[in-house]
Amino acid sequence: MAQKSFRKSQLIAFDNVAAGHDGVLSDPSGAVVIKPCCQAEVDFYHTTTGDEHAAFATFIPTFMGTLELNSEPDPADAVARTAIMNPTEAGQSITESPHVIPQAPVVEKAWAPSNGGKIKTDLAIVLENIAAPFKKPNILDVKLGARLWDDNAPPAKRTKLDKVAEETTSKPLGFRIAGMRTWQGAAVAGSNGVTKGGYRLYDKHYGRTLTTETVRQGFEDYFMLERGGAVPKGPMRRVVKRFLEDLTDLKSALENEESRMYSASLLFVYEGDKDALKDALAREKEEWMDGTNGEGSPEEDNDEDQAPAVQGLKLIDFAHAEWTPGQGPDENLLHGLRSTIDILEGLLES
Hints:
By secondary structure, the chain is an alpha+beta fold.
């Protein structure tokens, strides 16, 4: 394991969190996300680095390693170390595993507090920030499952989470909107509920007010659509279609796995800046016509020449996840995934 060391004073709060996750941090470049976690989540990520779960692994953030956040008396002297998997140690070539990186990143913007006091740990996980390639990322967090607790949960927690599921769309639909943020533009920043940064924020309470009859409105707000109408022709329709394709592929992957993943979430990201979105789609078309497929030539392999991002979808939050051979697919998770697919299909058809 290669290691990088840095002081806590170098770490910067991560501000692209859609739902909860207080204390998440990143490096100054914004390329990584660092959040406090339990050992079970780290262990689960380790199981995805080989070939056994390759199809599933394409739908989770790239796992870069862990941080040990030393609790020292003087915060200025506290040092965090990140252990990054070495491709040769993992027994995989870089091309064989999407979760192995050739060189450890300099993680500066990222020590993770205890998630609002709920997680008491010195352990943090380092993941790719899938929002990094976007100019103005619009982010949606959809928590999956009608059952939100694992077998180790105490009775009080089970009762509490069952009550949340009963009172929201979690039980009937298998998902609920946990939070989102949408870019409204600099012109309205700081007014009418828009942040000074130009975003409208929707917290967990917003999602809990939605019912089976109104939950579609949450997706309309996320994609910034007119109430009740179909997604119009143009860039946004292409974005929704891509999400639908990704969701369908993820569903197929999960139907071929035997697992249980309680309280996992779907993380949607698309380009919120309309001009940047149009440019990204145009760039993709040009590269497709050139036959480069977004890869570029070796001479053009630098940050400026990388194709801008259009959208992305990942499954996240694996504190209560495990592979369960012999128990069949995770129908609790798939219930929410299928319901989400139904919503997006409705947006395209109505």
